[in-house]
Design brief:
The structure holds two protein chains of two kinds.
Chain A (H helix, E strand, L loop, with lengths): L2 H4 L23 H12 L8 H12 L4 H11 L3 H10 L11 E6 L2 H5 L2 H12 L12 E6 L11 E3 L4 E2 L4 H12 L15 H4 L4 H6 L14
Parallel strand pairs in A: 1-2
Antiparallel strand pairs in A: 1-3, 3-4
Chain B lengths: L31 H9 L2 H11 L11 H6 L11 E6 L8 H8 L1 H14 L4 E6 L4 H16 L15 E6 L9 H8 L23 E5 H13 L1 H5 L9 E8 L5 E6 L4 H7 L9 E5 L8 E2 L10 H7 L7 E6 L4 H15 L5 H18 L5 H14 L7 H15 L1 H19 L1
Helix pairs in contact in B: 1-5, 1-8, 2-5, 5-8, 12-13, 12-15, 13-14, 13-15, 14-15, 15-16
The structure holds flavin mononucleotide, iron/sulfur cluster (SF4) and FE2/S2 (inorganic) cluster.
Chain lengths: 224, 430
Amino acid sequence: MTDFIKNPVVALPERNPAPHFSEQELVFSAEEKARIARWVSQYPTPDGAVMWVLWLAQEKFGFLPPEVLRLVATELDIPYAQVYGVATFYTQYFKEKKGTYVLDVCTCFSCQLTGGCDILHYLEEKLAIHAGETTADGCFTLQEVECLGACGSAPMLQVSNGPFVYCLTKKKVDALIAALRAGRMPGFTSVTLPQDEDEMGGNRRTDVESTIEYAALPIAVRTR
Amino acid sequence: MATKAGNWQSYQRVLLPPVKDLHKLSIYGDYAALRSVLTHNSPREVTDIVKRSGLKGRGGAGFPTGLKWSFMPPVDPAVPRYLCCNGDESEPGTFKDRQLMEYNPHQMLEGILIANYAISAKACYLYIRGEFADWITLIETELAKAYEANLVGKNIMGLGFSSDIIVHKGAGAYICGEETSLMESLEGKRAYPRIKPPFPAQSGIWGYPTTINNADTLACVPLIIERGADWFASIGAPTHPGPILYGISGHVNRPGVYEYPSGMLITDLLAVAGGMRGGKKLKAVVPGGASVPVLRADMIEGVTMDADSLHKAGSMLGTAGMLFLDEDTDMVAFLRRVARFYHHESCGQCTPCREGTGWIENLVTRIDEGQGNTRDLDLLLELCDQMEGRTVCALADAAAWPVRNTINRFRADFEAKCRQSVWAAQSAAA
Ligand SMILES: Cc1cc2nc3c(=O)[nH]c(=O)nc-3n(C[C@H](O)[C@H](O)[C@H](O)COP(=O)(O)O)c2cc1C
Ligand code: SF4
Ligand code: FES
């Protein structure tokens, strides 16, 4: 064995970590199997369905530890290494346990300039954690993410890979956290075109005006 | 002043029509364009119409769409052919495809089917980024309605053409927007871009002939069929015609997606978006997503939003996702975050990109934190030379361009931060 393998630069993951789920838990129901079969039928080879099945598994188990990846591999009859490779390539697949709600705050590009970093810091203070950590009560995980494709309503965040919350202000963040603590997820908000706002009584312009409190200098990105 | 965009004040929106009641099948004309092609045109003719319209890709590269379709090899009944619709939209500053899916999903679906017909594809994989979970649900619902109405699937409208649309959900990786990476992702692998050639038309998903187009590009197709290639070609700039979804963000009063003809003056678009916030002065514009070179405020006079004019001005059209920066913006902090984006999103296949993006981030960070030397700026520029054109995909170039141009065009800002540290070091030593 070379020195490199004996003393890796980056800590290697545990070879055989203790499983989080028991054998009995590690099964897909008949209904889930039917969904998987439908996905598999949509691709020339079963591999194509792996991303969908990982999404399903993540919904079911909350995150994707090795034993869940193995279950996915068995179900699709593809190598475990391939499933592991796919799961670790994408940021939205959770490889470790997260809080009940995952707050993905965008601090990229447009959001940085309109106060995304301020929102992130505000949340860090409010929840008393750093980006990337989970609160002690397991309620919130705070993450910093790259552009989520809603730059016209910046700053914004996404809750648990689901709904987007737009045009954030401190007040809106407070309200969101209170609602989530009470178990209320925000719903889908349609973004009106600015050209339609007058006609549709659009929801955006007033929001945008109130974010002016963040029109200050974009602060350097120091989150760690 | 007459601009390439012509009489844009009275322009009627066609991609994002002003609909009060969104997402209703009936208001989209029941796939009339598709019906018309299936009854009157051969696939070849459809491709020719699209060629004549001058439609260019809206995904960033601006490649002529009809020409791309004509690259598909002759039909062989034994070999399936595919279309991929690229709805990955992860380029920072770009949010038009999401708005399109929300406002007018059926126009995109109809465009997909017409394209499927033109290239004789068996199915289209509609790749949508995983973050757009709500929009995926929306598209799936609308697609189910279309299946039910026999507008998609087997023997569409009884006219003898069969084609499927399959929604694929991504899971958060910018690189999946790159066409070959998207194909790897569809095949259920790690999404490492492939070396080209072979190009997708020869060997795409699972090695079958494949064409890939952006969602917005495909949504233009039904309009071309319905109103004619000449009508489309007459909108906006002649070399890049058609409606453009300008995604305007940053320090403007009314950010959002605006639909106007191509070839709009940047200054007109700024006015349309309500001008700069708080009455501040404009400092810079990034006209087409994070990857394109930034323009200083004094460089945009008379510049229009089409490839030629922007090229002359020293930038690119990209995705037409425009970011306006005001006079107070710290360009170093801005570039630092952009550099972090590319470092995070590099897939790590090629050394110049994997290492280069990391070095760039470290160097810009050092400068931003007041620890840099002016020498670092030249090192950064040299790094860009070493990255451009030496990698499997264009991400490395996309990472290098903003660095090179932000430094060259705002050198004083960077030097100001560098000198501070030299002075600080000197005064500490004295
Ligand atoms: C790093 C990288 C990221 C890309 N991301 C996207 C994207 O998110 N959406 C998109 O439509 N095209 C993206 N593209 C461009 C595609 O590779 C491809 O050119 C485009 O989808 C073709 O469609 P079009 O001809 O209709 O523009 C990206 C390219 C590169 C190099
Ligand atoms: S250039 Fe970068 S992103 Fe593209 S294949 Fe190479 S390492 Fe991956
Ligand atoms: S920059 Fe935050 S959503 Fe695009």
